[in-house]
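Example 4.3 (complexes with small molecules)
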Amino acid sequence: MQVALFIPCLSEHLYPQSAMSMVKILRHIGAEIDYVDGQTCCGQPAFNSGYRKEIIPIAERFIKLFRHKQYVVAPSGSCVAMVRKFYYDLDIHPNLHQARDDLAAKIFEFTEFLVDVARCDGLGGSFPHAVTYHDSCHLNRELGIHEQPRQLIRAIADVQFIEMEQSDICCGFGGTFSFKFADLSIAMTERKCRYIEESGAEYCIGADSSCLMNIEGFLRRHGKKAKTMHIADLLAASLGL
Amino acid sequence: MNLRASSTRQYIRTALKNDNLRQAVNKATQTALQKRLAIVEQTPNWEDLRLRAHSIKQNVIEHLDEYLERFEKKCGENGIHVHWATDAEEARTIIKKIVRQNNVASIVKSKSLTTEEIHLNPFLTNLGVETLETDLGEYIVQLLDQTPSHLTAPALHLTRQDVGRIFQQKLGVDYTENPHELLQIARKKLRQKFLQADMGISGVNFAIASSGAFVVIENEANARLSMGLPRIHLAVMGIEKLIPTFQDLPLFLKLLPPSATGQKQTVYVNIIGGAQYDVLGEGPEQVHIVLLDNGRSKIAADVELRETLFCIRCGACLNVCPIYQQVGGHAYGWIYMGPIGATLIPQFLGLHEGRFAPFLSSLCGACHEICPMRIRIPHHLLKLRNQVVEAGFSKKGEKSVFKLWAFLAQHPVLYRLTTWLPGKIQIIYRRPFPAPGYWRKRALGLFDSRGFRRRFLDEQKQRKRRANIDQQHGMTT
Ligand code: SF4
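Answer. The structure with iron/sulfur cluster bound is encoded below.
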């Protein structure tokens, strides 16, 4: 099984550790890792801000880079949603339509890949802590991924998994939204963090670095005990990788 | 009303500090959501209902002209006067004419967003016609000289204590916060007016194309009274409100009340199918219906955005929206608010005036998930954001930033440099870079100058070296 990594910007520059954890897990289940050098961004920040024309070359470049891979896996739901779903809202050159369709069918979010493609029911391991899980919006609603990460967490032998209140309510990040309407965004983050705290979990697990960055930033700034952790880091830690 | 982003931000800031407002909004939306969920869970074919409703509306909006013609013809046969209004002004002129011709001195209104859309109340008041809102929530909002803050619950932003104080001040009654007593106070004030009014005005929930009839659903009987008691009834209806036949009505009546108030059914379903019959002598002598376009046919012409016209104004997308839950409906600055409002504002008011609205969303998608009509609201918000940008109404300088960024993203070496550099700087300057607004209440992470790529490639080199050594080792032993 050949897996080409797609490492989104935030993972590349702010959370390389989590991406490394993903690599470890993928190797652990026997995947052969392939890194496509020269990859950059999928174009999502500009797309969400209304800039479509500007990112067509970025999307076309992305499609060409990954078109011949067997599987493409990324540690982020929203970036996968961008490629799988929103590339259809761009005027991609007709010559690349087939390649776009192919790519949409073989790009996967990390937990989705583990459970649905690699048919891994769980990895076991040990993580004797209380954890909760935050459903990132694009992951949950665009890609319909909510069971897969939970299944992987529950499979860890001694973890205490607690569902927080409204685990699927937005954390308030929303990309440029958090700058354009900063006060509102913060109020939303505050609420999310309150639910995390109330759950009593030591760690809030997530599968999207952008939400985790937002949540972590708020928790840290306000001296909260709870920490955030990418699911790849959790799985790697539980296996001692 | 002011739609500029700066005043929206200002409003949001004030709203966020208003605990009373936030509590009221939070409580009301949570209650509606819980009740809704209880019903949806008991309705195993809910998804199927949504799909069917979507396809019915799809068909209607695609063939709107035909359905409208049929509706007009049937209304004519039933003795309902049909008037066409291309915009708000024309609608007001039509209504003025009817009011003048019939010497109307007082009007009772039942809740209608479409009449808010054409600013009917101030217009009628200026004509010297006494105009009274009769829906309790709408009545309260009218006393305050405000606009509704929710599609189905106009006074959702107020607590019952607020209402008690408003009644005390505006109506001169003793303070009470007992909902039942408050209702009785309003009822007493309103009953008299119903009997005196010359004209009743309502909106329309559904109009039946094949029968020339229209439907108004409600819980308080005020719509029923304003439709039945005065000698003239006038309904204002957006042209998208049509459904093909009466057979389609039950489907929509199954979807709307649970989504709106978490009720299985509303208390009343009122249907007007014509003016007074000679034999019975009951009901209004004249029935008028104003068919309002006001930009709708233009929206209907867009193969994608036309989906925003499928809206049945249930308000579920507002209730579930994490933004609406924080600040309520007035933040949007217009009569249609919340996620669906954010799509309608730029379409009705123009991309320039409504330019901020599509951005007032984190694109979380909860609205699409809950919408009984399955309207892909985030999808449309994204498209409208693009239209705002293409029309040149985005923030100054933003375009050049994204253009530069897009250029860099096509040149990996340069792209890496832009993050390698801050990473290097932060080795010495161990503080996050300024992120206006964002960082005020959030700590920021530091850039990693090595990044994933470097780590991975280094690691791979090491693995190869190790593999080579192992191999050599294997050969020597
Ligand atoms: S968009 Fe959907 S959920 Fe929102 S008010 Fe309209 S019908 Fe209801």
